[in-house]
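This section describes the prediction task in plain terms. A model, or a person checking by hand, is given the sequence of a single protein chain and must write out its three-dimensional structure as a string of C-alpha cells. No templates, partner chains or ligands are provided. The sample shown here is typical of the held-out split.
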Amino acid sequence: MASVAITRKNHLVSSLLYSIRCRRSYIRRPITTSRLSFTTSTSTSPSPADTEIPVSRTKVLEVFKEEFEIGSRLLTFETGKIARFANGAVVLGIDDTKVLSTVCSSKGDGVRDFLPLTVDYQEKQFAQGVIPGTYMRREGAPKERELLCGRLIDRPIRPLFPAGFYHEVQVMASVLSSDGKQDPDVMAANATSAALMLSDIPWGGPIGMIRVGRIDGHLVVNPTMDELNLSDLNLVYACTKDKTLMLDVQASEISEKDLEAAFRFAHPEAVKFIEPQLRLAEKAGKQKKEYKLSLVSERTMNKIRDLTETPIEAVFTDPSYGKFERGEALDKIAQNVKGILEEEGDEESLKVLSKTVDTVRKQIIRKRIITEGFRLDGRRLDEVRPLYCEAGSLPGLHGSALFSRGDTQVLCTVTLGAPGDAQRLDSIVGPPTKRFMLHYNFPPFCINEVGKRTGLNRREVGHGTLAEKALVAVLPPELDFPYTVRINSEVMSSDGSTSMATVCGGSMALMDAGIPLQEHVAGLSVGLVTEVDPSTGTVNEYRILTDILGLEDHLGDMDFKIAGTRNGITAIQLDIKPAGIPLDIICESLGPAYKGRLQILDHMEQEINAARVQDGKNSPRLVTLKYSNDDLRRLIGPLGALKMKIEEETGARMSVSDGALTIVAKNQSVMEKVQEKVDLIIGRAIEVGGVYKGIITSIKEYGAFVEFNGGQHGLLHVSELSHEPISKISDVISVGQQLSLMCIGQDLRGNIKLSLKATLPQKTKKPDPIKTSSDLSKQVEDSPPRQQEPQNSTSYSATSPIVIRSAVECDEEEKLSTLISSVKHNSKLPRVSKPKSSSQKPKSLKSSSNEDELGCDSGSKKTKGGKPFLLTEKRTNSGSNYTSSEEEEEDDDKHKHAFTNVVDISDFFKDRESKVEETSIDAKKLKLGTKVTAKIVQVRARGLVLDLGGGINGMYRFEGGGKQDFEVGSEVRVQCTSFNSKGIPVMSIVQDD
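The expected answer:
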C-alpha cells in the first residue's frame, strides 16, 4: 500500500511540473503578424498547447410555455425549442400526445386575386413507435384522414386573413407523439392558431377549437377516443371570442334543440384556448410585417361598376336563365367592359377587371335578396328546387339510385362486399378498419369543363366524408349486418350542394340494395346573406336561403350543409366567408333546414320506403356461413392458394373471419357453384333430407361408396339407385362420377345412408304380370322403390314386380327365419354375431351359388376385395343387428337347408302373423307366413321361379338340394318364409288341412 501511495504522489508532482512548463511555453510563444514567419525552437516536437482539444459551449434555448386546463386535462403551449426558423412554430401537448404546427409565408409581392393558403397535416408512424408497413418503409402520399384534418384546420383560419392579402402561406402540422387517447386534429388547429399569432404574418385571430361529445345525455369536453365510441355526438366547434367560424358534426339522429344546446355549450369552452395564445404572443410574438395588399382603388371600382351594374342586374332579375346561360351572359358583359378599357388604355383597371366584376355581381345580388327577398331563379327564400328520384336505375348492380334537385344530379351505386373487403386504416388513432365507405367523384363534365383526373382531391374527400357521416348513423348494427358497403357517387351535373344530393341518392341506393336502413336520410344546404356595419362589424340585416344554388354559395356568406332523418340530424358541415357569424343566426338556420329536409324525404319515400328484396336470378348474392376455424384453414390452403383458386375459377369473392365465411357472387348460379366447391372441401352440417353433391369412390355389388360434404363418406345402396329395375350397377354409375344425393338416414354405427332415387321424380308404371327368367335376374339387383314410411313400420309398397322391401330389412327377416330353423333342429338358440368394429381386417366377399344358379345374381361379377361397411336399420321385430354384407352372404351359405322343416316354420308364423286373403295378393299384403297359390314360371337346377300373382315373382329352393318333378304352368300351394338379401320372397311348399 505504501508503494502505491508513493507512486500516486510522484505522479501528481510530475503532472504539476508539466502544467507549469506548458504555461511558460505558452507565454513565451512569439506573436506572429499577417506575414508568414518562422520561430526557432530548441525542440522539434509540438508543445502540449498545440494539441489541446477545444471544449464546445452549451447552447441555451429560450423556451416559452403557457399551461392551462380545459375540462379535466392540462394543456401546454410551447415555443422556442424547435423549428426556430419558421415564421411561427408552436407545440401543443395533452398528456403524451404532442402536435407541432409551423407557418411560413413567401417573400414575393403577392400579385394575384386569391389567397394561396396551403395546410398540410401529417401523421407519421414514428409518433406511435411503429415502422411503416410499406415496401419502402416510408410514408407515402397523404391519406384521406390527413386531407380531412388539413381541411379542418383550413376552414376556420382562412376567413381571418385580411382582404387583399394574397401572399402564399403554408401551414404544416405534424404529430410528434401520440398515446392513442386524444385525436390530434383539434390540437393541430389550436397549435396553428397559436403559431399564426406568434408569426409576423397579418392575421385576425386567435381562434379556439373544441370537440364535444354526449354520453348518456351528458355533454363531454375533449372526449377521449374510447369515450367517443360511446358518444352519440361528435361536434367540432371553432370560433373567435364572439362569433362562430366552423362546425363539423356527426351524430345519431340528434334533435335540433339538443344540437343547439351543444353549440352554446361548446362556445365558451372553445374560447378558453384564446387567452393562453394571447399571453404567449406577448412573450414570444414577432412584430407583424407590412405586406403589400392587392386592393382595388376606389376610382377603378366606381368606373367598372358604372359600366357593368345595369346589364348584370338585368341578368339577375331574369329567372329564365339557366346556370350556363346566366354564366355566358355575365361573361359577355365582362368581355364588353374589357374591350372598352383596352380602347381607353386603362392598364390598372384591366389587371383587376375579373375581381372587380365579381365584386359588383356580389353587391347586386346581395342587395336584391335583402331588400326584395327574391333569388336568382325566382324562388322564395325557403323554397326547395324541383326534385326527381329514381331507385334501381341500374338493375344489374347491388343497388343504384338517381337523384336530381334542380340542375344538380347525382348517380349513386352500392356494392356489397365481405367483411374482409373493409378498408384498412393506418391512422394513429381510431379503428383499424372501416366497413362503410362513400367515394364522391366530381368529374369535369359535370360543369361543362375539360380537366384532368388526378389522385385524391381535398374537395372530393371532404364532400364524400360528409355524406358518409350522414348515412352511417342509419346503417344496421355490425352484428346484424357484418358486410362491407361501398357507395360510389358520380356527380352528373352540378349547380350547388352536390354533397347533400349524394346523401339523398345514397340513402335510396342502400335501400335498393336490400340494406335495412332505420330511416331515410336527406340533406340540403342553407345559405346566408348579411348586411354588416363596416365600422362596428355588427350584422344589421340578414336573409337565410334554403337549398342554395352554386352562384348563391359563391356570392353568399355561408354554406351550411345539414343532413338528417325525420327524427334528427346525422351530419353538419359549416363553411363561412366572413370573419365569423353570430351563433344565434346559425341556430336559427336549423329551422328552415328541417322544413326543406321533410319535403325531400317525402319524395324519396314515394320512390322507395323499405329495403328491396333481391329475388332476380341475375342479381348479386351474398351469404355468410359458419364453420370451425380448422375447416376454414383447410379451405384457405397453404398461403391461401386453395381460396384464390376457387375465386379465380368462379369469379366470386370469399372473406374468412373468426368462425365465419362470407361469399359474394355476381348471381345465384355463381353462388351455387362456389358453395358446391366449399362443400366438397369442408362440407356443411348433414341433415336428413338434405341434398349434397358427392363423388363415387368405389362400386360394389350391393351399392357404391360416395365421398361428399368435405371428406364425409356414405353408402349409396343398390336399392336407392333408381325407381326402375337395374341389371348392373356399373351401367348406371361409374367411379369418379358426381351426383346429387339425399341423406335418408343413419345406421346404428353412425354411417350415412344416401339415396339417388329420392332426388329423382317417380314415374308410375303398371306392373307386367308375366316376367321372363332373364327379367327376373335383372330385377333381383334393382332397388325397391319405397314410400316414405316410419322407421319401424311393417307395411311397404312396391312398384317393381319383384322387390318388396329394402335389402336391409329383407336380410333381417331372412336372418330371423334362419334363427327359427336352428331352434327347431338344435332345440337351443345359437349365438348371434355382434357388429364388427371398423378397425377389423376386411374379408373377401362371397356369393351364394344357389342364387347364381337360379339366375337371381347372373348380372353380378364375382370379385374379391375389401369388406365395406354396410348401413342397416334397426327393426322392432328383429332379434339381431347386421353390419356387413359378408355376414349376410355367409349366413346364406351356412343355412342353405333351413327350409326343410317347413311345417314348423309355418306354425311359427301362424302365431306371429295374421293370414291374408289369397285372392288379392299385392306387395303391401305379402308378409311372412302368407299362403298363396303360385304358378310355376320356370324350373331351374336348384329351384323354381314362381308367379305369386299381382305381378310378384318369388322363388322356391329344392329341399335337400335335390331336384323334384315340377312342370311349367302347374300350380302349387306355397307360403312366404323369408326374403333373401336381394329382396326376393323365398317360398316353401305347404299342404293345407
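For orientation: Residues 106 and 168 are 5 Å apart (CA to CA).
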